[in-house]
Design goal:
The complex is a heterodimer of chains A (315) and B (274).
Chain A: H1 2-9, H2 12-20, H3 23-64, H4 67-72, E1 76-77, E2 85-86, H5 89-120, H6 123-138, H7 141-159, H8 169-192, H9 196-203, H10 209-220, H11 222-238, H12 241-246, H13 264-273, H14 281-310
Antiparallel strand pairs in A: 1-2
Chain B: E1 26-37, E2 40-51, E3 55-59, H1 66-73, E4 83-91, E5 94-95, H2 103-109, E6 110-113, H3 124-134, H4 140-153, H5 157-160, H6 173-185, E7 191-195, H7 203-216, E8 221-225, H8 229-235, E9 238-243, E10 246-252, H9 253-258, H10 263-269
Parallel strand pairs in B: 3-8, 3-9, 6-7, 7-8
Antiparallel strand pairs in B: 1-2, 1-4, 4-5, 9-10
Helix pairs in contact in B: 3-4, 3-6, 4-6, 6-7
Classes of the chains: A mainly alpha (315), B alpha/beta (274).
């Protein structure tokens, strides 16, 4: 009883003062930032670690293969017994073919879905469709790869008899389907965040829904849309399983979409899963290819950042 | 309750600038209009006849239905999902609720200025040219002329003529609102609806917009919602007083502000509530 009477007599400020005096609390307050900093540095250090490994192994590679042969060489024949050739252009061509097809598929369909969801669909429809789209984004890429190889390729062969079993077209289309939800979802977010007052302004001038969507909402949301496309492209460039399964393993430097190709990622898979010995030129070549890939995605991320900054429209 | 003075002779005709216009021409005739938001009965048996080339002010306390009413006139209110209406609004001899009435055509003839300035995130030029462009006017020279004429009409040409290709968001709030008025003028509408156009503006910008309204009524019929009674008194020819979704009184502005016939109008105007 006596203690409770005592506490009753203390004012709130006094109680707070008492709490503040406790040392344990002070110690926790001081150590928390240090602990958080250490945890945060792990991811930063990992990134540095990866980049340094890439760089060192790549340097080692360039001591065996001339740099200019690598970036300008039009033949990638690492397994040749007589004279292995390490010209990266065929691998880049493979990657760009798949990416280009993916963009051609994903951008129109993704944007159309985004316009539908943000401008036409009722709240209920949107609530149902958006999660489904996001499920599509969550399908494991190995499943997509299988889908490309065993369903899309045979289907395309009905229309294009010349199509080889491994080709650029089929994985390109499937990578497009894979990145489509990303474009649709991020673009929809950008368009939904355009204030309704701007739509009202256009509607009040006698604009139809389509005119509002195309001539007001799309331009206003352009920065978000561009950023979504660039992010999707960077995923397409880095995509591995689909192209490994359905693209083949024949690096070629041309524009043929119907024949077997090899992308940068697929080459790395091929070597990693094969039996190239440690310390061989082939072993080091995957680091050089990985580093090139890293530069591509880095460029894309930087581009996304620059675009969203550049086109940002205040509303 | 509802008092419509269609047959009363005009008392102030000589001082009005629009003597040469037929004063009996009715642009908007609202008959027994009811409107519900879901179960909320927002407009009750509205009867109002609005004449052309006049400024008609709609006043009343918050939530009285004045904004709802003006948004019904160009059917913008239908953007609210749960809206139901009954009754008629006759605009130029046709009921705008007719099932075959083209709402885009209505909004092309009836412009609107909103409470908060809402220019498009585009250049000043593109803002003004938006309306003409969506209605098919593409010729660069014609557009140039329309933009200049509209900006002059909205009394903002001199302020922006050197920066037509800059983003409209760089302008002040008052300038943005006049851009929005110019944007409405660019398609030469018949009626301009203004939904509290000065409520987000400072006193000087408000004055400019009010002066503009006075000039515009020579060529346009203007219906303006305002919560500012002095503003209604300053700029309007007729005033309608709304309360709880009903029109309590509709008369010459002078009459409403000097000798209102309803006690509630008098109470509101003298500041006893609202």
């Amino acid at each position: 009883m006596a203690t409770s009477e005592q506490t009753e007599k203390l004012s709130i400020q006094q109680m707070i003062e008492e709490q503040r005096g406790k040392k344990a609390k002070k110690r926790i307050e001081k150590s928390i930032p240090i602990i958080l900093f250490l945890i945060a540095s792990i991811s930063v250090l990992t990134t540095f670690g990866i980049v340094f490994t890439l760089i060192f192994e790549t340097i080692e590679f360039f001591q065996r293969v001339p740099f200019l042969d690598f970036i300008f060489g039009k033949e990638w024949l690492p397994f040749s017994n007589k004279e292995p050739l390490f010209g990266i252009l065929p691998l880049i061509a493979g990657t760009l073919k798949v990416t280009a097809i993916a963009v051609v598929v994903a951008v129109p369909f993704g944007l159309a879905s985004a316009v539908y969801l943000s401008e036409y669909a009722s709240d209920n429809t949107r609530r149902i469709i958006k999660p489904i789209l996001e499920v599509l984004a969550g399908v494991p890429t190995i499943v997509y790869g299988f889908f490309a190889l065993t369903f899309v390729t045979p289907l395309l062969q009905q229309f294009i008899p010349d199509l080889k079993i491994f080709n650029a077209l089929s994985p390109g289309i499937v990578v497009g389907i894979m990145i489509l939800p990303m474009i649709a979802s991020l673009s929809e977010d950008a368009m939904t965040s355009v204030p309704n007052s701007i739509r009202d302004g256009a509607l009040a001038l006698g604009a139809t829904k389509l005119e509002v969507a195309v001539k007001v909402v799309l331009p206003a949301a352009l920065s978000g849309i561009m950023a979504s496309i660039v992010l999707a492209v960077s995923r397409a460039i880095g995509e591995t399983m689909i192209v490994s399964l359905a693209g083949g393993s024949t690096p070629r430097f041309d524009l043929d979409m119907t024949d077997s190709i090899q992308t940068m990622t697929a080459y790395i898979v091929q070597v990693s899963t094969g039996d190239a010995g440690f310390g061989t030129t082939i072993y080091y070549s995957i680091y050089a290819v990985g580093f090139t890939l890293f530069l591509f995605t880095l460029l894309m991320n930087w581009l996304a950042h620059a675009i969203s900054k550049r086109f940002r429209e205040e509303y | 309750m509802v008092q419509v003075n269609l047959n009363k002779p005009q008392l102030k005709e000589t001082t009005d600038s629009n003597q040469n216009v037929n004063m009996n021409n009715i642009v908007y005739d609202t008959k027994q209009l009811n409107l519900w938001y879901g179960n909320h009965h927002a407009l009750k048996n509205i009867d109002l006849a609005i004449k052309e080339n006049e400024v008609t002010a709609i006043i009343g306390p918050s939530g009285c239905g004045k904004s709802t009413y003006i948004k019904t006139l160009n059917r913008m209110v239908e953007l609210v999902p749960s809206v139901k209406t009954s009754g008629q609004i006759i605009y130029r001899d046709r009921n705008i609720f007719d099932s075959d009435y083209n709402v885009e055509e209505l909004r092309t003839r009836v412009g609107m200025v909103f409470q908060k300035p809402n220019p498009f995130p585009k250049s000043i030029f593109d803002n003004i040219a938006y309306g003409p462009r969506i209605h098919g006017i593409k010729n660069k020279k014609t557009l140039d002329e329309i933009v200049e004429k509209s900006l002059r009409g909205a009394a903002i040409w001199d302020e922006v003529k050197d920066r037509l290709h800059e983003n409209a968001y760089g302008l002040s709030g008052g300038q943005q609102q006049r851009i929005c008025i110019a944007r409405a003028l660019a398609i030469e509408p018949d009626v301009i609806l203004m939904d509290e156009p000065t409520s987000a503006l400072d006193p000087i910008s408000t004055l400019k917009v009010e002066e503009l309204v006075q000039e515009l009524k020579e060529n346009y019929s203007i219906i303006i919602v305002t919560h500012n009674m002095q503003q209604a008194a300053r700029i309007s020819d007729k005033t309608a007083f709304f309360l709880n979704g009903e029109v309590i009184e509709f008369d010459q502005t002078d009459t409403i502000f000097s000798t209102p016939s309803d006690k509630r109008t008098e109470d509101y105007i003298s500041g006893r509530f609202g």
